[in-house]
Amino acid sequence: MKKIWNQLGHSLFAEDESSRKTKHILKTVFFFYILVLLKVIVFKYPLARLEAIAASWTKEVVWEGLGTANFTLFKTIRMYIRYWGKLNSFENLFGNVLAFVPLGFLLPFLQKESRRFWILFLDAFVLVCCIELFQLFTAFGAFDVDDILLNCVGALLGYAVFSRCLRAPVGHRRSRMHRVHRAPLDKTRYLGWKHRARCAECGWYS
Fold first, then answer.
1. Which one of 5, 48, 104, 114 is most buried, counting C-beta atoms within 10 A?
2. Among 126, 178, 115, 175, which residue's Cα sits nearest to residue 148?
């Protein structure tokens, strides 16, 4: 497992053949993850039922979807907690969170901008809103603002795993760099795979 983490971390900063192979694998995993996610959330009904829903698209269906949509934050969450033993509360609450954890973990590897917290959050929010709006106007599902909240929480948990496992704390990183300047002959002792590529550009490591 440690070797896997090291390789993932190496792919963040390096541009060698090993890093490119790792990124290619991550892109493939991410592609299939998105397919599974859409199948589970959007196209969860059997094909015959989806065709029947599509054949019945009218303005009335859209208005009916607006009537059953939940635009009140925490309304559905409170309902699932209140009727925990009668509804599929665990599946709906934790399932909505866990389904988007891989998004928050994988996306920062594939898109440098998403390594920033707010960019990742915005990416997840836009994706989730698109899914919910699609369900609203196609009747393939129900719009629920609580789903948006839970999905975004899941993406942020995935991002937290990414940050915790593959990024050194800022203070610790600065401490290492400070020691490198004071003792340049021993710099390889203090620089791990997370910093070598960056330090090479600055002339701290060769």
1. 104
2. 126
Q: Please, are residues 11 and 23 in contact by the beta-carbon 8 Å criterion?
A: yes
Query: Residue with structure tokens 């998004």?
Result: 103
Task: Indicate if the pLDDT at residue 181 is higher than 50.
Answer: no
**Distance separating alpha carbons of residues 51 and 54, to the nearest angstrom:** 5
Quick one: which of 159, 155, 168 has its CA closest to 127?
A: 155
SS3 helix, strand, coil % of the chain, rounded to 5?
80, 0, 20
Question: Could you read off the pLDDT of 141-161 as tens digits, one per residue?
Answer: 899 999 999 999 999 999 999
Report d(CA 121, CA 127) in Å as an integer: 10
Angstrom distances, CA of residue 103 to CA of 31, 147, 149, 195: 11, 15, 15, 25
Please state the pTM of the whole predicted model: 0.77
State the pLDDT at residue 179. Answer: 47
How is residue 25 written in tokens? 């694998």
In the numeric block, the tokens 């599902």 are attached to 141
